[in-house]
Amino acid sequence: MGYKVAVVGATGNVGREMLNTLAERNFPVDEVFAVASKRSAGTEISFGEKTVLKVKDLETFDFTGIDIALSSPGASVSKAFAPRAGAQGCVVIDNTSYFRMEPDVPLVVPEVNPGAIAGYTKRHIIANPNCSTIQMLVALKPLHDAFKIKRVVVSTYQSTSGAGKAAMDELFDQTRGIYMNEPIGKTQNKFTKQIAFNAIPHIDIFMDDGETKEEWKMVVETAKILDPAIAVHANCCRIPAFIGHGEYVNIETEKPITDAAARAALKKAPGVSVVDMREPGGYVTPVECAGEDNVFVSRIRADKSVKHGLSFWCVADNLRKGAALNAVQIAEVLARDYLKK
């Protein structure tokens, strides 16, 4: 016997990827519902190779009898609908930022803190972390277990898909426009600066202390998911790539750490692929991780500026492990351990 699953925000980049991931991983569904805003209601969307779903209107959709909702409709929409769905008995796995830091809502990366899923019973809501936090913590977990991380400094190189389809379109239109000698201003809507052939050190809003909210998310989410004793400093940058986030991560540990020992720990870790050849091309880039499920770690080397230091590069598909896949993996643990049918 399978589950009834609703995908909320089904017509967006992440929603479509959620549907694809459910189908690819053969999640045990009896019925799947595609749910989105009123303007998308009635349109058709694919689930798997043979099934076409007609999109339902979120405003009128009844979650009674729905076991799990995978949600990525935007924070303000989740704020309104998720408590209603939870009250109707549906467990909402929400990809937006709205519930992440609420103390009675679990914030989960299955490879890192799967036990936190048990807390879903408080509100019937589980939060999916920020994409940049997810891939970093998948890589940090085995290193923290083995060497106890004291401090992390991370610099991200995040693709435009992290800001939605309109952002990807802006990169495409600006790139084409530059070759056609068209003014950038005609296509600059989503970003504060030109994104084509550029890098923008600004993701999300600025906060009073000068960091952006994206950077703040990486700090507070690491504390909630992995260990509040770890000091984190994040620098987040948008780059002209369509899919795939890159991160350079420097860590300082309490126990002695070597690149060989770190590489061995990472190779054993679930969800991690180590591709680290010290030669031209012996590393993974954002383009190469698109469509892949794992976090790829390369450029592992000692950081000699501190007593016990290590530096590495990691990339992941931000629409998959950074969003849709992580949500589906949470649903798999939820179904296996808590909602057994």
Q: Could you characterize what this model shows?
A:
It is a single chain. The strands form 3 sheets. This protein has a 6-stranded parallel beta sheet with strand order 5-2-1-6-7-8, sandwiched between helices. Strands 10-9-11-14-13-12 form a 6-stranded mixed beta sheet. The chain is an alpha/beta fold and 341 residues long. It has 8 helices and 14 strands. The chain is globular. The protein folds into 2 domains: 3-128 and 323-337, 3-Layer(aba) Sandwich (Rossmann fold); 132-318, Dihydrodipicolinate Reductase, domain 2 (2-Layer Sandwich).
Which descriptors would you attach to this protein?
341 residues, alpha/beta, Rossmann fold, 6-stranded parallel β-sheet
- Rg result: 20 Å
Shape: globular
Distance linking N and C termini: 6 Å
Describe the biggest sheet?
6 strands, parallel
Give average pLDDT, whole number: 96
Quick overview of this protein structure:
With 341 residues, the protein is α/β, with parallel strands linked by helices. Helix content is 30%, strand content 24%. The model has no long low-confidence stretch (mean pLDDT 96).
Topology:
Blueprint: E1 3-8, H1 13-24, E2 29-36, E3 44-47, E4 51-54, E5 56-57, E6 68-71, H2 75-87, E7 91-94, E8 125-127, H3 131-147, E9 149-158, H4 165-179, H5 213-225, E10 231-238, E11 245-253, H6 259-267, E12 272-274, H7 286-289, E13 295-302, E14 309-316, H8 320-337
Parallel strand pairs: 1-2, 1-6, 2-5, 6-7, 7-8, 9-10, 12-13
Antiparallel strand pairs: 3-4, 9-11, 11-14, 13-14
